[in-house]
Amino acid sequence: MMFGLGEGLGFIYWNMKIMDFPFIGGRVKPLSLTKSLAKNLKLEFNVKETTSVKKSWSNAKALLDDNVAIGLQLDSYYLEYFGVKMHFAGHFAAMYGYDDDFAYMVDTKPNGGKVKTSLTSLEQARNEKGPMSAKNLIYSLQKTGQKFNLSEAIVTAILNNASEYLNPPIKNIGYKGILKTSVEIKKWFKASSNVEHEFCTTAMIMEKAGTGGAIFRNMYCDFLQEAYAITKLPLINDAYKQFVVIAELWTEVARLLHSAGKNNDASPINKTSDILLELSSKEYFAMKTLEDIAV
């Protein structure tokens, strides 16, 4: 429900020379989800960034000492409880306490749950430079006392998410991005210097690294099911049924990418390309269905 109210569903295929290999993502850009959630639930949203490590820790302590949990943007590579050691500076986690040595946090399973990491590692994770990184970003959410209507908030969030998804500003985002990935995936496989690492890691990120599986489509599917139960709008139920199929196809994409990487085999990549072509069309029509709830 929070993922949906945060207008969180998206897609991006991102490839830059400074990156080890391309990134395939299934949500909106970092922090956008939290901003939208706060707006739709009428919460107070405060965010701070600073290049000063000392000031950033002071900002965090001030809120924690006031018994306010905080959100942090981090490079998961430095978090001591994180099982997969790869640089990803667009990771988010919550922090609720600290002592002289450790930060006490809540993070995504299977790496997380209630966890702790040394203050030194946290500092490194917060201050990392490079793709998707932020300047020691910290944020908090607090009640305002303003009331909201959940059914209306759901409809607003769905319409905003659909509009954003269906009108990508560049061709590597949204359904156009999936279409582009169907072509780029073959080029990537041929050019890869470490097929097993790159494609098995990508498959893991899509299915297991905090995405709810199926590159966030399972989460959005569940949101739509809950949204229909609250709003009773038939088109939301129609879109839910479409996303059930879409989520299953994304799980198959991840399986094929893992197979291609494990066996250094191009045939699963060709099949992946075909499925991505199908997914681009299916997601376009599913989001068009949701866009029509405004009519």
Please provide a brief summary of the model.
The protein has 295 residues and is an alpha+beta fold.
Descriptive overview:
By secondary structure, this protein is α+β, with helices and mostly antiparallel strands. The protein folds into 2 domains: about 1-30 and about 150-295, no CATH class; about 45-140, Cysteine proteinases (Cathepsin B, Chain A), CATH 3.90.70.10. It contains 10 helices and 8 strands. The strands form 2 sheets. The protein has a 6-stranded antiparallel beta sheet, sandwiched between helices. A hairpin with a 5-residue loop joins β6 (about 100-105) and β7. α6 (about 175-190) runs antiparallel to α10 (about 265-290), α7 runs antiparallel to α9 and α9 packs antiparallel against α10 (about 265-290). The model has no long low-confidence stretch (mean pLDDT about 95).
Low-confidence stretches: none
- The string of secondary-structure elements, in order, is HEEHEHEEEEHEHHHHHH
Kindly give the count of domains.
2
Estimate the mean pLDDT confidence. 94
Strand order of the largest sheet: 3-8-4-5-6-7
How would you sum up the global shape?
globular
Radius of gyration using CA atoms only = 20 Å
Number-wise, the strands total 8
SS content category: alpha+beta
Helix content: 40-55%
